[in-house]
Amino acid sequence: NAFRRRREAYRSRGRAAVCEALEPILFGDENAAPYRELGARLGMEAPALRTTATRMRGELQKLIREEVRQTVTDVEDCEDEFQYILGLFAR
User: How far does CA 4 lie from the centroid of its chain?
Assistant: First the structure.
């Protein structure tokens, strides 16, 4: 749900292409294109794209936390569950 919500937010702002282009980087894909290449395709400078990726990570973390809060019965379990989910992406 968090990923879908993030995509929809970027799509509604006319930035679906940026969102899709950065997904491999956000998920740590070793085959992700470098920022310079993505920037050339999107008409953006690499530093601006890197900043956008950083913002997207923060937005995505916030959305994941919101989703996790809806699935745990004890609010104190939320952070443990969130860290577990983040650990899945670190692999």
Answer: 10
What sign has the CA pseudo-torsion 22, 28, 29, 33? positive
11 HSE (CA, 13 A, CB side): 7
| pTM for this entry | 0.78
Q: What is the dihedral of CA 3, 39, 90, 88, to 10 degrees?
A: 20
Q: Would you write out the chain's pLDDT as a tens digit for each of its 91 residues?
A: 888 999 999 999 999 999 999 999 988 888 999 999 999 999 999 999 999 999 998 998 889 888 888 887 777 777 788 778 777 766 5
